[in-house]
Amino acid sequence: MSLLRQGKAQVLTIYLGESDQWQGTPLYVAIVQFLREQGCAGATVTRAVAGYGAGSRLHAGGGWQWSSDAPVVIQVVDQADRLRRLLPRLQEMLSGGLMTLHEVDVLKYTHARRRGLSAKLPVRQVMGTALTTVKLDTPVVLVVDLLLAAPFRALPVVDDLQRFQGIISTGDLINAGLLPMRRGLVRTALELDSLTAETIETPLEQARQSTRTAQDIMNRQVRSVGPDLSIREAAHIMLETGLRRLPVVEADGRLVGMVTRADLLQAIVTSPLMSPQASSATQPLHHTAPLGAVPAQQRPVSDYVNPEISTVDEQTPMAEVIDALILSPLKRVIVVNAARQVKGIISDTDVLSRMQEEVRPGLLRTLAGWARGKPERVPTGTLPAHAGKARTAADLMNRDVVTVTESTPVQETIERMIASHRKVLPVVDAQGRLVGVVGRSDLLRVLLEGNH
Amino acid sequence: MTERSDRQRLPREGQRLRIFLGEAQRWQGKPLYQAILELAQRQGAAGATVLRGIEGFGPEHHLSTERLPDISDNLPVIVEIVESDECIEALLPLLDRLVQRGMITVTPVEIVYGWRGL
Predict the structure, then answer these.
(1) Where would a tag sit more exposed on chain A, N or C end, judged by fewer CB atoms within 10 A?
(2) Residue A386 exposed, middle or buried by CB count within 10 Å (0-12, 13-18, 19+)
(3) Nearest Cβ partner of B56 from A11, A43, A126?
(4) CA of B74: which chain A residue's CA is closest?
């Protein structure tokens, strides 16, 4: 009997020009990097020997040693849902070119770690290589704007020979007084009413007057790793130090990549076929006999749950919610009913965007103090109890909560986290009662276990 | 139109088989893609095309790219075979043994022109 497993998947085929550029890197490189970041199962780029079409224009810049104008084709075989989610971003990246989708039967897909995690994989094979870097003398104005706009949260600083010098994270900007609070809040605040936006704009404007450069504010005491370090060791370093990303540096000091928690987690989930539990639309796979011990990524998420959570009920007053939020290490509180069933989740941005306009600046000042390491209790007086829309947890909470059950396998939990863009998922038991939460760091522990 | 007697028209309804591999994968001392070509030929498949990628990643999330010499030793390779349903069906169990790591996909295609043999 054939061991071939059958399932439906989609093939996304992207046609573009080899010299097409995206934010300073070849477009196909940026697309491959994006697909890896999104946890795609795989992608293959082939170069055609000739062709024409909207995507392959003559690139005038020159300078790239591989700046031929040949058409290149990127093929991605993956779950339909995942590909559909990626399409808007890909359309944004492609200024011309062509994308097609068609269905295929995947007859065989060998998961690299079907017999356990390949935790010995070197980081260079999972790291991000399409990096934006700044130089030592880059003005901080540019650094602030780059970090506010960018999808990444840290900018490596290199010298003229691409040697790694240090790193600037949004936390470093906060410490240097250039960013009033964490970036997600700043972005949210800037999109709210004018008074709230102004509370943020003023310190940002002051930051723009700064004459300092990258080397004045960068963190030089950065733990970097070599490209051959295993992902297990990288996960170990991250868990031990609390670092969320590690620069990958060659022996000669050159920066070759960055590895993040998301990169490590995505190394765990790469199947183009949805796990059968994750989607009922997928054809059932042929039963394959378990091979000894259950691989770590197939284990239930209950093994990795963090039970320390802040909960409130729907009637909890806003001031208490904010207190709980400030004390919560995950910066989230979960709203439960009397039976401990999850009704909603509240983050600082939820509070900010759902509270009354006139109290937003007060909250921002409190959060700014908190961000600089000066935690102060919320001056309850500044949060008037008078008639307003948002007064209790029920008014502030986000009701669109993505949860997993205790028995959900780790792999599917990570898939769901990636698909829903959530960093923290509440975990519930079979009756829907909250038992804890699971975050990226909790799941990274998977890499420390399993087969060697 | 004259047809040479040693040529046989492929059926109109067929399958396109794609095998995604790494260039460095080997089978009994030779490159795996070459072993697959030889297998396809022995099985009488009309043809096979090997495409070498310039960049890519696979199930192990390894990035390989011709841009960085460090990680260019296992560039992606795609083997494509377009054949009748029966031929593809017969190839699959054999390929299953050969391909230890990688992905095999099939798509129905309409073969508008294609011959077996010379």
Answers:
(1) N
(2) exposed
(3) A43
(4) A125
Nearest by CB to residue A77, choosing from B92, B96, B105, is B105
- pTM flag (> 0.90): no
How is domain A7-109 classified at the CATH fold level? Alpha-Beta Plaits (3.30.70)
| Interface contact A104-B92, CB threshold 8 A | no
Distance from CA of B90 to the nearest CA of A (A): 11
- Between positions 40 and 99 of B, the ones with CB within 8 A of A are 51-63, 65-68, 70-71, 76, 78, 92-93, 95-96, 99
Q: Which two tokens stand for residue A312?
A: 């409130």
Per the structure block, which two tokens stand in for A451?
């087969």
A196-216 burial, b if ≥16 CB within 10 A, otherwise e?
bbebbeebbeebeebeebbbe
A121 and B61 within 8 Å at the Cβ level: the answer is: yes
B63 part of a folded domain: no
CATH assignment at residue B86: 3.30.70.120
Average pLDDT, chain B: 86
Question: Rounded to an integer, what distance in angstroms lies between the CA atom of residue A56 and that of residue B10?
Answer: 34
Give the model's pLDDT for residue A249. Answer: 95
The domain A124-266 is placed in CATH, from the list 1.10.3720.10, 3.10.580.10, 3.90.79.10, 3.30.390.10, at: 3.10.580.10
Measured over the CA atoms of residue A385, residue A389, residue A395 and residue A396, the dihedral's sign is negative
Q: How far is A88 from chain B (nearest CA, A)?
A: 21
Nearest chain B Cα distance for residue A138, angstroms: 27
Give per-residue pLDDT as tens, B13-68. 999 999 999 888 999 999 999 999 999 999 989 888 898 899 988 776 677 888 87
Residue B88 clears pLDDT 80, i.e. is over it: yes
Residue B56 domain-assigned?
no
Interface contact B61-A107, CB threshold 8 A = no
* Residue A323 in this model has a pLDDT that exceeds 70: yes
Q: Is the pLDDT at A27 greater than 90, yes or no?
A: yes
Residues facing A158 on adjacent strands: A135, A164
Residue A237 · residue A224 · CB < 8 Å? no
Residue A3: pLDDT above 50?
A: no
Write down the mean pLDDT value for chain A.
80
ipTM for the predicted complex comes to 0.80
Measured from the Cβ of residue A242, the count of other Cβ atoms closer than 10 Å reads 8
Q: For residue A310, what is the enclosing H or E element?
A: none
**Residue B88 maps to a domain:** yes
In this structure, whether the domain defined by A302-372+392-440 belongs to CATH 3.10.580.10 is answered with: yes
| pLDDT (0 to 100) of residue A58 | 45
* Burial of A292 (C-beta count, 10 Å sphere; 0-12/13-18/19+): exposed
Between A104 and A57, the higher pLDDT residue? A104
State the average pLDDT over residues A43-62. Answer: 64
Kindly report which listed range (A240-244, A315-319, A368-372, B30-34) carries the lowest average pLDDT score. A368-372
The reply to whether B24 touches chain A by the CB within 8 Å rule is no
CB A71 within 8 A of CB A48: yes
